[in-house]
Design brief:
alpha/beta, Rossmann fold, 2 domains, 6-stranded parallel β-sheet, 10 helices, globular
Length: 225
């Protein structure tokens, strides 16, 4: 069942991750792995490699906690205004290929569409302003509204209470294995893995889920020829 295209007649709610599922994760990868380390290196007189190593250790130290994606937290911790940096680099923010067509298709089908993202409100606002993502969906819920990140088991009952979706009649799509596993444990019936999260990286499929590199299989009900 998990590896078959979804039967949309059995689905009422579509819960979609934002970065790496609808929006190209290349922006986030470049931001946190290249540009922020470069500026941190300049600020502290480090090599780019030393700066990257320090920042990666900082990221890992709060992985799974809300601080992991809290842009205000990172501004304080690294001494650089990361919200202003997001605005400065917003020309790099964009949809993955086929994402807008997919969202329009779901609208035609009459599904309730909710973005469920680990991203911080400030980052969401910048990305929405750049892409107009909000016009395609009914609601955008960030992890801070729920109180946990999506890979945490506590996230899903809180999210369900917030949105009143029936897990048995819901589809969730994400590029993160941990988030998908947590949704599976909660009982979300239809799970889709976004295997091509960045336009600049090769696909990284997961065998335990319907793992797709484009939206054709979800729109047409079959893999592309």
């Amino acid at each position: 069942m998990a590896h078959c295209p979804p039967d949309w007649s059995r689905i009422d709610d579509v819960l979609l991750d934002m970065d790496g599922t609808l929006l190209d994760r290349h922006f986030d990868n470049f931001f946190f792995e290249e540009e922020l380390p470069r500026r941190y290196a300049m600020l502290h007189g480090l090599s780019c490699e030393e700066a990257r190593d320090r920042l990666m250790a900082m990221y890992r130290s709060v992985e799974g906690e809300l601080a992991w994606t809290d842009l205000d937290y990172w501004t304080r911790r690294v001494g650089i205004d990361v919200v202003a940096m997001h605005k400065e680099l917003d020309h790099m923010i964009g949809f993955l290929s086929g994402a807008e067509e997919f969202l329009r298709h779901l609208r035609i089908l009459g599904k309730r569409l909710t973005i469920v993202t680990n991203a911080h409100e400030a980052g969401v606002s910048i990305k929405v302003a750049k892409t107009g993502l909000d016009r395609y969906v009914d609601r955008i819920v960030d992890a801070f509204e729920v109180g946990y990140l999506k890979m945490r088991p506590e996230y899903w009952p809180n999210c369900q209470r917030l949105l009143s979706f029936d897990p048995a009649r819901s589809l969730f799509m994400d590029d993160d294995e941990g988030c998908l596993m947590a949704a599976k444990e909660f009982g979300v019936a239809y799970l889709v893995h976004s295997a091509k999260s960045s336009s600049k990286l090769p696909a990284a499929p997961l065998p335990q889920f319907l793992s797709i590199t484009g939206f054709s299989v979800l729109i047409n009900g079959r893999p592309p020829a």
